[in-house]
Design a protein that fits this description.
The complex is a heterodimer. Chain A contains 10 helices and 20 strands. Chain A is an alpha/beta fold. In chain A, the strands form 4 sheets. In chain A, strands 6, 11, 12, 13, 14, 15, 18 and 19 form an 8-stranded antiparallel β-sheet that branches. In chain A, strands 1, 2, 7, 8, 9, 10 and 20 form a 7-stranded mixed β-sheet that branches. In chain A, β9 and β10 form a beta hairpin. The radius of gyration of chain A is 23 Å and the shape is globular. By secondary structure, chain B is mainly α. Chain B is about 55% helix and about 0% strand. Chain B has one domain. Classes of the chains: A alpha/beta, B mainly alpha. The complex binds flavin-adenine dinucleotide and iron/sulfur cluster. Iron/sulfur cluster binds next to loops of chain A.
Amino acid sequence: MAETVYDAVVVGSGPGGGIATYALTKAGLKVALVEAGPRLRAGVDYGHHDMAWEVAEERISKGIGLPFDSVWRHAARNHFTGVGDRPNHGMLVALGGRSLCWAGHSLRFGPKDFESWPFPYSQVAPYYSRAEKFMGVYGFKDGLWNMPDGEFLKGVPYRPAEKALWRGVQKLKSGGAKMEFVAQRKAMLTEPHQSRRAQCHFCGMCSGCCVDAKYTSANTPLPMAQRTGNLTIITEAWVTRILMKDGRASGVEYAMPNGDRREVKCKALVLACNSIETPRLMLHSGVGNSSGQVGRNLTSHFGCWVYGFFPEYARRDNVNDDGTNYHHSLLTGLNWDKPNPKFQGTYQVQCGSGWPLGVLPIRDVKGWGKGFKKELREKNLGNAGMNMQGTLLQSSKKFMELDPSAKDRNGVPLPRIHLHYEDNDVAMADDMVETCERIIRAGGGQLHWSPGKMDPSKLIIDYNHWVGTVRMGKDRRTAPLDDWGRSYDVPNVFIGDASVFPAYPEKNPVLTNITMSWRMSEHLAELARKGELA
Amino acid sequence: MIHRRELIQIAAASALPAAPRHFGEGPLKFFTPAEDAVLDRLADIILPTDEQSPGAHEAKVSRYIDLVAAYSTAALQQRWREGIKDVEAAARSRFGAAYSTLTRQQQEELMGVMAAHEGKPENALERFFEMLKPAVVDGYRFSEIGTRQYMRWKGNGGALSYRI
Ligand SMILES: Cc1cc2nc3c(=O)[nH]c(=O)nc-3n(C[C@H](O)[C@H](O)[C@H](O)COP(=O)(O)OP(=O)(O)OC[C@H]3O[C@@H](n4cnc5c(N)ncnc54)[C@H](O)[C@@H]3O)c2cc1C
Ligand code: SF4
């Protein structure tokens, strides 16, 4: 029997791999999707609508958290080694990757953010529109120049105490401060949608949506790709090596759960394993690194929390603070118009408030007895939390490489992540904390908790937002990929995850990852049509 | 048409005992009834009944802790057991009687001793308080009383009614 040679093999089914698979199969290419993890079913393998008191025993006995059964419990731990300031790396090895557990925040990068990319925002805008319509993103039209409005479904407002933050921002703005406070934009359905996913019912379990109201690779692009008849999905197949022939990728080798090796052959290869695993695979296979930049330029978001307490909301009688997760609002627009003299780059702050089902945002209340019980209730009713998210300065001190000795069970070196907070990062964090504190006070609140003066030991890396390790660029000496996401060195290798970002603003990665992967995939399909990949 | 085999399966399924509706409705898993009684009172002193809602006793918080302890490591199980013993010992040395025979006022006085250095415990009894309190708070928020009466949770659907 002749060996099957797929038009394209896609490795990894996270947000980037999912959309690439859809775009390529829709264009008529025969595609094999190779995914290391198993298929997890929403509402069956994760995400359950149970009341905590009814399922306490079952959950506790299985080590599953309460109140929510988050899909994040399936996460792969310790799949990396680290050097420096507590680096970390999150990975969900399952069909859909971290699109199963992401919070859905979908913010366009703006014209300023694309200034250091090889193409301007205006070229990307139509792709953004297409991605938003495809995913189903709710939001309000805010008219912000550097976080442009998209194709939104009906928006979800923020909770009561977030209004106090809004008020604080208005006050500071009237004193000349440059900032904006808007409702969040999330890839969750608030209206009927072409994907026919269920509509959101505001249960707040978004880290594993049991009804698929939240967009995932597994519930939208992959079923649609399967309907084209052009897709083969291979799950529980960990790719261990890129196979090369005559300077081109001829396929991949993968390990089955029992350790056996298989191969799958292709004309074009799309890597979408995430911004740590994709460069790892390239470095291990010795593919596509003539620039020496694979694994470099690593950046992510980092930050910490500040909590405010607003007494005016503490005695609300009737609580119904459900909604989509905790964060319903966003502080943004900081340092857009002119750079901050104290640091490069900028940050945003994801804000939330109130007391969603079974969640206790405020726990650090002292004492016991009636006074404690009352205060615990009031602090939770009147809290507003500010989760700061700044962009880590890209520098030679932050990168990933192969660990010289530690290997995974397939014998592939583990990725080793280097993270060192620098003066720029600390200065930005100081500014974040100061700004949040000012907003809370201006909004009529008290500071409930703040980290105070910054030092690196207080900073938390957002280990799910790594990007930049296989960047696009106009010059093949400084970038592994061209401005479509195609390898300069190996012309039939393409990257479909957020490794490709040449620069990183303060905004969350997934919407742009999907947009870029879709754009790259159409380019790939076009090259295939012209016979350039055969 | 239902086949005989399926009918048997359906009959077998419906013969299963009904799952408990709330923790604490089944038997104790780890603590003895005497230990449970101590935990139950300690929990109720941390979160007592007030005008907002019934307290930790009605919410069966000690039975949540029983589940947590039952499925935790041997080392943690021992810490729970010893913590209860420390409370008993403190009751005897301070009031010369078993904890369960003390008046509620005496039990509250003892809680004051346990919580004397909250956040910076200085002895075994104070360390037990640090372990106990978060478990009590969790048991309460996961209970039906905690959710429906204390938090006043009324089901999903409020989100769209907020006005920006
Ligand atoms: C709790 C949580 C909340 C988040 N919230 C947001 C948010 O609100 N907004 C936002 O923009 N981002 C959010 N993120 C981040 C976002 O999920 C990630 O940035 C995104 O999923 C990365 O996409 P990816 O396709 O690059 O990688 P992944 O999602 O990691 O997917 C990679 C896939 O490839 C597979 N894979 C890896 N290596 C191999 C291999 N060698 N062989 C075969 N398969 C392989 C993995 O199993 C996985 O399925 C969140 C993340 C988490 C965990
Ligand atoms: S709030 Fe909406 S999106 Fe989130 S888990 Fe519930 S139904 Fe899904």
